[in-house]
Amino acid sequence: MGKMDRAAPQASERYRAGVMKYAQMGYWDADYVPADTDVIALFRITPQEGVDPEEAAAAVAGESSTATWTVVWTDRLTACDRYRAKAYRVDPVPGTPGQYFAYIAYDLALFEPGSIANLTASIIGNVFGFKPLKALRLEDMRLPVAYVKTFDGPPTGIVVERERLDKFGRPLLGATVKPKLGLSGKNYGRVVYEALKGGLDFTKDDENINSQSFMHWRDRFLFCMEAVNRAQAAAGEVKGHYLNVTAATMEDMYERAEFARELGSNIIMIDLVIGYTAIQSMSKWSRRNDMILHLHRAGHSTYTRQKTHGVSFRVISKWMRLAGVDHIHAGTVVGKLEGDPNSVQGFYNVLREERNPVDLQRGLFFEQDWAGLRKVMPVASGGIHAGQMHQLLHYLGEDVVLQFGGGTIGHPMGIAAGATANRVALEAMVLARNEGRDIWNEGPQILEQAARSCTPLKQALDTWKDVTFDYASTDTPDFVPTATAA
Amino acid sequence: MRLTQGTFSFLPDLSDAQIRAQIEYCLGRGWAVSVEYTDDPHPRNAYWDMFGMPMFDLKDAAGVMAEVDACRKTFPRHYVKVNAFDATPGWEALRLSFIVNRPPSEPGFGLEREEGAGRLQRYALRAYAASRPEGERY
Hints:
The structure holds 2 protein chains of 2 kinds. Chain A is an alpha/beta fold. Chain A has 19 helices and 15 strands. Chain A has helices at 11-14, 22-27, 53-63, 80-83, 116-123, 145-148, 157-165, 185-198, 217-235, 250-262, 276-288, 301-304, 313-323, 341-352, 389-396, 406-409, 415-434, 439-451, 455-464; strands at 39-47, 86-92, 100-106, 133-142, 172-176, 202-204, 240-244, 267-271, 292-296, 310-311, 327-329, 355-356, 368-369, 377-381, 401-403. In chain A, the strands form 3 sheets. In chain A, strands 5-6-7-8-9-11-14-15 form an 8-stranded parallel beta barrel, surrounded by 5 helices. In chain A, helix 13 (313-323) runs parallel beside helix 14, helix 17 (415-434) crosses helix 18 and helix 17 (415-434) crosses helix 19. Chain A is elongated. Chain B is α+β, with helices and mostly antiparallel strands. Chain B is built from 2 helices and 6 strands; from the N terminus they run αββαββββ. A 4-stranded antiparallel sheet of chain B has the order 2-1-3-4. Chain B has a two-stranded antiparallel ribbon with strand order 5-6. In chain B, strand 3 (79-86) and strand 4 (93-101) form a beta hairpin. In chain B, helix 1 crosses helix 2. Chain B is globular and about 55 Å long. The model of chain B has no long low-confidence stretch (mean pLDDT 96).
């Protein structure tokens, strides 16, 4: 990549009125070495025919920082070299002609402390509609420790959540109430009660349960908390229901959250569609009120799924860890929704690790130090059942909420039986794994063995044993592992 | 009822061989194992009584099993659990906690209510056994 003339022009030349290439305006610098305090963004760019990839990268750097389409003399009133983002590296995407990975560094001074809204207004604010590009996708970001420390992060985090719930050593179990729309408050609470009494730790409102005519929010909250408390008494164990406080305005959301607290709920829920600022507001509220904050990623697939366009979910995961949520839906690998195993493990690592090493196979392009920021519990939800327990534990590990909605409520002997089947399958699999058994290969036998003393598990295995969702994933990493001599 | 706190309470009570295998798993990961007991199993009772200190330097599962046995013999009608503590930075908390002894009969919990304004309810969970003094509950 050295075709372009990038000799630095004289200032009088550089700022003469008119248009010039972004690369020549200073947004491309192959020699730039990013500072430890720089924010770095990695974009997948698909330039239009005839557009040089370096110029395209420079254009993205320009449009996501200081530039406009033409030269402006007012640049000379600022330390404009500092405020310009610098594209410093462009690599062809392996095996994908016409696409490039562009690395762009941003000075920390460009960003307001502790504001996802401000960070994203720059990084994804204007550039995605830019005409010289056919398509653009934000693949990954390196967030410097200096910036990470300006965020509060998760109000509770994995460790404290486990201490509050007094649940250790196994994934948590949840279920979303189904049908997700149409139940009255009393019938809805019935599902919550049965599922929790049967053995689940959590039940969950779905993303679109807010306050509709068939069930107003106060009714939902009151019946659900009755169910939670009855189930706690039956089990002698902490239980919870994610009360979705998503609403049209912040005032409404605060009102709903306050009522959840008044009723003694240990967890509330919000949807990604409420926006980054509202998420951060609810995070701060949760921190003040000892509340676990569950985030449903409603709407994300509109921009995360297709590989050429949008924002990768690994970036959304990073933003949400900064913004401060305790739970986030991050894929199941084996269920009904999109999720390549390597990509999903990359998301989980972003949410759960102290520090992420570069891991191209899982789509992680940068080392990321989380600087002690609390960890987010990923949630696996959508089309999973007890018969996949060994696969779920293998792929997703221990610090995850496994949510079996249909896989609980659809049990032939009822909701409580479905919950018991899941809990027994889970505990049996963790026990076997800890004993050193090879759960990946022996999983089905371990489940069958556990089912001998648990009829609900036997029925669950019989009902769903052949259900798989075996479709090719869209959002897969571009790097495959290289074979190494063992 | 059956108290379902702890990692393995939905399974049949663990045999000594199964308990030992879990302890070996914990010791193998460098976790410190401890034994705790209580006759107040309220789910918010964070502080069960410690049967000695966490065994930070013990690497032998047989030694931990001896402590488990001693606790079960001393408190045969109490709940006894085995905890494993992980001092890894960023964790510094329990990694496993499972019940290894329970009272012969578990009467369970009553749910008390107080009616509030509107339809508000204030709930309180009380173990039926906890109305008696400590040590005489099960």
